[in-house]
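Propose amino acids for all 268 sites.
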């Protein structure tokens, strides 16, 4: 088809339309001329539409890509190892980091350094994620207190927030357990009220790591006339028997991380 000729014919037909007084050509006749000139092109458009309707496009499926996965054969060993030093599983901690064989054999100082560096890496990326999780789910009556703890942490006032974090941990555990008990009785109620996690593997490991730390370290019975526990202990802190000069940045972050684990389980 000669589209150039078509438009010339249409233009010529339209120009013959005289709308002035004394016109002897009816507008309807000219419209009929335009319509007749357009018919071949309308027919062509309809034919193209039929062709498109009959086209079949290939069905693309997602390619079968084998993604590399880390070796998690030592999950139980690493969970026991890490929670022994108070580093429990959270949603915000990279599982590749948490279950890395590099952590096996580290002493407390080395482990603390590794976790502090991980949580504060990339301008506190993982710590900020834990903060968001805690603030969004913590009990409303202690939310302001938790925000003050984060503010003090940012200011480097680590020792000042240790007792408060202990109180907040117990507050959140009692909220989940719906219990007015303390010490081992509170932990017993917490165990009863803990969510069933048969289908959530990571959460189940997180609960396991939390219970091990609470039972074997944080709430462990320790006589005040004996040597101070290597890992910060709730009884020593809240009963005024501990020496605050021993409290470190890692201790503050350790307890914040524990709160992150508690909130992870609380939100299930």
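Proposal:
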């Amino acid at each position: 088809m000669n589209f150039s000729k078509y438009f010339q014919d249409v233009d010529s037909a339209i120009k013959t339309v005289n709308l002035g007084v004394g016109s002897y050509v009816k507008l309807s006749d000219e419209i009929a001329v335009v319509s007749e000139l357009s018919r071949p092109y309308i027919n062509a458009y309809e034919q193209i539409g039929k062709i498109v309707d009959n086209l079949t496009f290939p069905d693309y499926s997602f390619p079968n890509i084998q993604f590399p996965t880390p070796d998690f054969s030592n999950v139980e060993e690493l969970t026991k190892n890490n929670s022994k030093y108070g580093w429990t599983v959270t949603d915000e901690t990279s599982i590749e980091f948490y279950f890395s064989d590099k952590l096996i054999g580290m002493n407390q100082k080395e482990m603390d350094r590794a976790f502090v560096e991980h949580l504060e890496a990339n301008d506190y990326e993982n710590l900020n994620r834990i903060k968001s999780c805690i603030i969004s789910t913590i009990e409303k009556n202690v939310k302001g207190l938790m925000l003050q703890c984060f503010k003090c942490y940012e200011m480097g006032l680590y020792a000042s927030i240790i007792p408060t974090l202990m109180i907040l941990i117990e507050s959140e555990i009692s909220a989940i357990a719906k219990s007015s008990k303390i010490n081992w009785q509170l932990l017993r109620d917490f165990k009863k009220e803990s969510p069933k996690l048969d289908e959530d593997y990571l959460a189940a490991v997180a609960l396991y790591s939390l219970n091990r730390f609470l039972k074997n370290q944080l709430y462990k019975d320790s006589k005040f006339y004996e040597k101070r526990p290597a890992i910060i202990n709730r009884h020593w802190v809240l009963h005024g028997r501990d020496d605050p000069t021993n409290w470190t940045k890692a201790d503050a972050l350790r307890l914040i991380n524990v709160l992150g684990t508690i909130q992870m389980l609380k939100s299930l």
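The two ends are 68 Å apart (CA to CA). The first helix runs from residue 3 to 15.
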